[in-house]
Amino acid sequence: MKEAEILQCLSETGALLKGHFLLRSGLHSDQYFQGALVLQHTLIAAKLCAALAEPWQNQGIETVISPAIGGIIVGQEVGRALGVKAIFAEKDDNSNLLLRRGFILKPGEKVLVAEDVVTKGGRVQQTIDLVRAHGAIPVGVATMIDRSAGGVDFGIPFRSLLQLNLPTFAPENCPLCQKGLPIDKPGSK
Questions:
Q1: pTM for the full model?
Q2: What does the alpha-carbon distance between residue 187 and residue 8 come to, in Å, rounded to a whole number?
Q3: Fewer CB within 10 Å of terminal CB in the chain, N or C?
């Protein structure tokens, strides 16, 4: 898919929001990508995730894993496009990721990590660590949106459909806070 086509999908579905946002990373931004707003449109989600899966064809991937909750639909659709199983990791009470619901990873199993958006990459790194803890092999990371501005290196191939260089601010340097604008923590709400 071409960048203009991807941006059109995001625009038409209202997935790119403007305001004052607290990101999961702790940073602030005046723009936010709400993946659920584009992923709720099943045909668009299938199309975007098929394009995301394309570079991973014929890589021997056996499983796609996603951190819950934002990555679940991406993982499911990427798994479908690759013809492999798709599982997800969930947070425990300490925000650590673990496998539940009978999901397992076998030693040596080749696993692709799928996510909706990466900013600092913390949740993706936790997922990679979880894969390794089970003896499986993380072969790459596939995300719809990379808003890290090239600042994330997982030590394995990392591909995105689109790089969005949306501004982020440390809370103490946030111009939106300095203007007294109320902050929104969109997350999964």
A1: 0.86
A2: 22
A3: C
For residue 17, which phi and psi values (nearest 5 degrees)? -105, 150
76-93 pLDDT, tens digit per residue, is 999 999 999 999 999 998
In the chain, where do the E strands start and end? 16-22, 28-33, 63-67, 85-91, 97-98, 110-118, 137-146, 158-163
Q: How many residues does the chain have?
A: 189
The model's pLDDT over 17-67, given as tens digits with 9 standing for 90+, comes to 889 999 877 889 998 888 899 999 999 999 999 999 999 999 999 999 999
Q: What does the alpha-carbon distance between residue 131 and residue 128 come to, in Å, rounded to a whole number?
A: 5
Torsion sign, CA atoms 46, 52, 58, 61: negative
Other Cβ atoms within 10 Å of 130 Cβ, number: 21
Report the topology of domain 3-170. Answer: Rossmann fold (3.40.50)
Contact 10, 160 (CB under 8 A): no
The amino acid present at 46, given as its one-letter code, is: A
- Give the pLDDT of residue 187: 66
* CA–CA separation, 31 and 186 (whole Å): 11
